[in-house]
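User: Hi! I'm a student and our assignment asks us to look at how structure tokens line up with a sequence. Could you show me two examples?

Assistant: Happy to help. In each example below, the sequence comes first and the structure tokens follow. Example one:
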Amino acid sequence: MEPQYLLFVHPVWQVAATLVGLYAAWLGLKRLRSLHLGHSVSFPRSRHALAGKLALGGIILGSLGGAIMVRWLFRRWVILGAHGWLGLVAVALALFGLITGLILERRPAPRKALPLAHGLINLLVLALCLVQFYFGELLLGALAPDD
């Protein structure tokens, strides 16, 4: 098997993490409705926290895996282009989302600003992931072996 085929592990992993992130966002919308919009809805906190940790951890690990594959196959850490740079931004924001999520999970208290910042940053991470699918597809088209 050609080592370039390993490049497909990264996008499959990232798509899976993004799908879990979309589920966590859907659960988080229930919290937004109850906290900021005054609706009485139950918030499945433990399920949201688990899905969020899996998604953000998956995005961070998947990005690291992509960088390691680029280093192994092309002898550099980052492909200097939109995909590489946006990936670094997404990882930084995902770290913020993960840290704030852990704070909210481990130190529950009546708050409004931190959960809102947490949710907005994580929505931005998901939006960046969706944009990354476009740039990643272009990159795979240029790097993948022809059959």
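Example two works the same way, sequence first and then tokens:
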Amino acid sequence: MSVDAGIYITLAEHSSKIMLPHNIIAWLLNYGWTLDDGGKTSYLPVNDNESFAWQNEDISFKSLMNIVLEKESNQEVVGIAITWQNTGIGGTLLLYNNGKITFSVNINRQIIEVPDGTKVTDVTWYLIRFLPALNRSDCWVEHFTYDESR
């Protein structure tokens, strides 16, 4: 059975320059997230036009950031895959220029089993590693929701 699980975040709107995707990526990387997606980097290319044709390849950080900056300039959705430290656990991010973030927890999804035996995403595992990276003195999470469907 396929599971679609995601965290949807809105950053406070007090400074649109601070909330740009390249800054958000830097905050996440500084907090402990990596761009390692099975030994390569996954991202959405320039002029993807929301077809979500993910690329997975060896690419330098500088080249990736050039793509991110060009996508920002074009007002495109920035997409990258991130994993936590050396765990291989993470997901794909969609970053918008307005401080909205979609984090699909789809890379080695962490699960817990509830008393009736149902397995659900351990959303706390993600929240404690994701939200603190975004809550800063110059920016903070205004709102987030979690959704899971089967």
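Here is something you could point out in your write-up. Helices lie at 21-31, 61-73, 123-134.
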